[in-house]
Q: What sequence folds into this?
């Protein structure tokens, strides 16, 4: 029997991941389709896409068609630390992809922990990110980094400084030669170029990268950063996922929003990251919150081509009935074929370009298979 | 069989130089030297597949994963800002991005500066950093004509030897940044084909020292 009436790829992924997150106690969160635009305009840099679809509602308020889920979750949860909220969602968001002039509907599934997030909570989120990737492909890599390192290396430069932004881009691009290019235009504080190079090079399997991370963190006087990274990654030791975990310092983010642990997930079959997440305590602060938060999203639009298998047929049986056939006969014949485990496309004439394993005629209430 | 490494090369003289670098680094594909109009070449034994693509399209092939790595000028990387790793400065294909103008040009800050260019993003970023108001005139070629016929005050374009500028009575007014060819990698390929990509980067770096 064909799988014509089974779940789509998206539905399968959503059911699998939602069930996984709920097993760990994450409560489904449903957001409103429209939110006040003000929420997004105040945090524009946090949004992946610059464009937001807006309209004025009947009361004259400027509303936005949801471009993001995280901001809505923060707005709709209260500061209850040290308690923690664990929420999961699957929502469509509306964004303008880079280089595009229009908007696209994109399905996202993800989770958030908000409140008294501790290292155990961070480890749990990393584990669920790995488990999400493992459910999508046998061959995945989860890149993890600690933004505290880049923050400490760049600390001598002011937060909004253009050189600082350019150096952070070098880190994100694994661009060692770019550091010298920047230094040529503007002298960098003593030792900064070398430390950025060490940061870029401190990537790889945790066993290889951690000693380099420790050395850099010690040099920066922030040994707790290396210890935190080591602690949260210890959850993978001795597990089947250990081989898929990498420390990769090129995983960065806007430091006005993100801090500490950040991560990104890749599948062999997909050219772009399919999962992205991290701690966003800085965003919480900007929204006048004192509690902490971490979360991730899986981008379902990037998984469209994950399932390249095409069904050979569109239904098992094309059931053709002549004009004036009583509807009750068509229904009985269709129901009998379905009861026999087949999928049926009943039509009076033809079915266009659809393909079937069998063709049968309904004559006098009887199904006659064609040779 | 290990995965093939897919490499996008910019068509033209620069691509030929890059190929010889990569071949010497252990990724040869002799059929690429055959005359003809084929655009894809493969050497299964060396685990490599090369594509010839338009230089400005290399970043598209790499960012979208059709090619694992490629070679693109710094101008293209700064103009399109693709989400790729920039692994190495190959130190070849050197030129510069510059503002050029008629020899007697003097900037009048009371007027909006009319800038003709193929590189809209680079020009906008450069003048925004100086707080200079400009009017971008996007052209696809023969940019040098624009100030001569009064279409623009200056141009922002790539300058190699400067001979085209000289022949059109133009001169470099300011250099924006130097350009050279960069080795770029798709972020996902860099994870899953790391051994081959790292080997290539290391061999090329070794060959240059």
A:
């Amino acid at each position: 029997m064909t799988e014509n009436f089974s779940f789509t790829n998206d539905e399968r992924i959503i059911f699998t991941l939602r069930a996984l997150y709920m097993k760990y106690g994450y409560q489904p969160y449903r957001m409103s389709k429209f939110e006040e635009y003000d929420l997004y305009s105040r945090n524009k840099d946090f949004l992946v896409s610059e464009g937001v679809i807006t309209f004025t509602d009947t009361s004259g308020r400027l509303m936005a068609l949801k471009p993001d889920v995280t901001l809505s979750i923060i707005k709709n949860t209260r500061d209850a630390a040290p308690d923690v909220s664990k929420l999961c969602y699957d929502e469509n968001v509306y964004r303008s992809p880079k280089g595009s002039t229009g908007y696209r509907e994109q399905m996202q599934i993800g989770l958030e922990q908000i409140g008294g997030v501790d290292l155990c909570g961070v480890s749990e989120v990393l584990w669920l990110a790995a488990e999400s990737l493992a459910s999508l492909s046998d061959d995945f890599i989860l890149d993890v980094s600690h933004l505290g390192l880049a923050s400490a290396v760049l600390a001598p430069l002011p937060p909004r400084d253009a050189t600082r932004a350019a150096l952070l881009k070098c880190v994100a691009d694994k661009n060692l030669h770019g550091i010298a290019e920047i230094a040529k235009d503007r002298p960098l504080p003593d030792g900064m170029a070398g430390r950025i190079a060490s940061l870029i090079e401190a990537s790889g399997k945790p066993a290889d990268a951690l000693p380099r991370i420790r050395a850099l963190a010690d040099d920066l006087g922030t040994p707790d950063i290396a210890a935190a990274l080591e602690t949260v990654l210890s959850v993978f030791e001795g597990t089947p996922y250990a081989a898929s975990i990498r420390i990769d310092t090129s995983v960065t983010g806007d430091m006005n929003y993100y801090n500490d642990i950040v991560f990104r997930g890749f599948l062999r079959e997909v050219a772009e990251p399919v999962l992205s997440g991290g701690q966003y305590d800085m965003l919480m602060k900007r929204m006048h919150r004192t509690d902490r938060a971490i979360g991730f999203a899986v981008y379902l639009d990037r998984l469209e081509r994950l399932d390249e298998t095409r069904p050979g047929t569109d239904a098992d049986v094309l059931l053709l009935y002549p004009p004036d056939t009583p509807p009750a006969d068509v229904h009985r014949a269709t129901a009998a074929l379905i009861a026999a485990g087949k999928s049926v496309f009943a039509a009076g004439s033809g079915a266009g370009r659809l393909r079937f394993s069998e063709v049968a005629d309904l004559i006098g209430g009887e199904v006659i298979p064609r040779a | 069989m290990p995965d093939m490494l897919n490499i996008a090369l910019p068509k033209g003289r620069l691509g030929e130089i890059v190929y010889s670098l990569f071949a010497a680094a252990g990724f040869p594909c002799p059929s690429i030297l055959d005359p003809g109009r084929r655009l894809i070449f493969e050497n299964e034994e060396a685990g490599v597949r090369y594509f010839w693509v338009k230089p400005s399209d290399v970043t598209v092939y790499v960012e979208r994963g059709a090619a694992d790595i490629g070679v693109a000028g710094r101008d293209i990387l700064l103009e399109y800002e693709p989400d790729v790793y920039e692994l190495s400065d190959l130190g070849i294909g050197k030129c510069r991005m510059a503002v050029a103008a008629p020899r007697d040009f003097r900037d009048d800050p009371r007027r909006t500066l009319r800038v003709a260019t193929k590189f809209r993003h680079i020009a906008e970023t450069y003048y925004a950093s100086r707080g200079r108001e400009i009017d971008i005139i996007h052209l696809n070629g023969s940019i040098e004509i624009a100030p001569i016929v009064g279409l623009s005050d200056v141009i922002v374009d790539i300058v190699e030897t400067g001979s085209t500028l000289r022949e059109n009575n133009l001169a470099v007014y300011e250099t924006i940044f130097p350009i050279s060819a960069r080795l770029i990698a798709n972020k996902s390929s860099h994870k899953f084909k790391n051994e081959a990509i790292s080997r290539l980067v290391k061999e090329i770096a070794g060959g240059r020292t």
Summary: The interface with chain B takes residues 139, 141, 143, 162, 173-175, 177-178, 246, 250, 266-268, 270-273 of chain A (CB under 8 Å). The mean pLDDT of chain A is 90. The first helix of chain A runs from residue 9 to 23.
